Amino acid sequence: MIIHIVGVEYLSTQKTDIYANSNVCINKNGDLAKNLICPVLVELQPEGTLPDLESLNEALSFLRNVAWNPWTDIRERDDIKKLNVPFPYGPLPDEIIKDIIQSYNAAVSYIDDLTGKLLKEVKNDTLIVFTGDHGWSLGEHGEFAKYSNFEESTRVPLLIHVPGLSNRKVVSNKLVELVDIFPTLVELTQISSPLPLCPNHTTTLVCTEGLSLVPVMIDEIQNKDIKIMGYSMKTKRYRYAEWVKFNPKNFTIDWTTRYGRELYDHLLDPKENMNLSDRPELNAVIKKLRNKLILGWRHEIKKKLSLNK
């Protein structure tokens, strides 16, 4: 058991405290002493064991009872039965694991082909939602089949096609749930007004436990959420950029509050992989470019026009 006290981490049990500094090291004559070089016989130790062994046994007990699933589901399959995999945690042979993953991927490809054949017969003005049950663990976390709450086991496929809206084939990483599908379809089809949120223990016939995904599909930038804005300029040699405070209400810039800056030398680094903004020897260049950036393109054009007169 790991104990944390005032920042010091140490391994401690009551038995360790009781038998600390006991004579446990075997001398050549068979007596027990307090030696630095200390071979031990477990049966001669206090209570016939060691703290390390007690910790190991406790960990093994924990693993068997809590942390892992013994693959009971797949053990019922005839081909896995023939392997006589030791209970509870195997291991499964590597070749069998590869075959399981290969077969799973083949099943996914097969379903993908069937889905494609179905979609070829669907009219272009059809609203389509593709989803399914959650998947299997394929060895992640030492798990197979279902019966866990890890990411691999709880996610489901979700594809939505809305004619005229989702033609861009956008992939969103925003957090959504299956309960969001119903209010999404209601909004897209406009079969009713927006649904009320279901209260606890409700008997309401028409309500929702989710949120419409239409804003996610439209993915419009919410100006009110933009508090930092990036501005950049380019010369024949340099690109300079600053990230500064931005007011989304009146679109004003606060150049005095800077969150970051970037400077790239296109002569040496045309792909802009090395940010030079922290180089003291380039402070003069940065100062000049920053002034130009703040003054803006109008000032630069006016200056060029005045020179041409």
Task: Describe what is shown at a glance.
Keywords: Hydrolase, Metal-binding. The protein is an alpha+beta fold.
SSE arrangement:
Blueprint: E1 2-5, E2 8-11, H1 14-19, E3 25-26, E4 32-33, H2 51-67, H3 72-75, H4 78-81, H5 94-120, E5 128-131, E6 137-138, E7 144-145, H6 151-154, E8 158-161, H7 181-189, H8 214-218, E9 228-234, E10 238-247, E11 252-265, H9 283-308
Antiparallel strand pairs: 1-2, 3-4, 5-8, 6-7, 9-10, 10-11
Describe the structure.
With 309 residues, this protein is an alpha+beta fold. 33% of the residues lie in helices and 18% in strands. It has helices spanning 14-19, 51-67, 72-75, 78-81, 94-120, 151-154, 181-189, 214-218, 283-308, and strands spanning 2-5, 8-11, 25-26, 32-33, 128-131, 137-138, 144-145, 158-161, 228-234, 238-247, 252-265. 4% of the residues are buried.
Feature tags:
Arylsulfatase, C-terminal domain, alpha+beta, two-stranded antiparallel sheet, 309 residues, three-stranded antiparallel beta sheet, 9 helices, extended, disordered N terminus, 11 strands, 3 domains
Number of helices: 9
Structure classification: alpha+beta
* Multimeric state: single chain
Largest sheet: 3 strands, antiparallel
Helix content: 25-40%
Q: If strands are numbered along the chain, what order do they take across the biggest sheet?
A: 9-10-11
Number of domains: 3
Gross morphology is: extended
Average pLDDT, all residues:
83
Organism: Rhamnusium bicolor
GO molecular function: iduronate-2-sulfatase activity; metal ion binding
Cofactor: Ca(2+)
Keywords: Hydrolase, Metal-binding
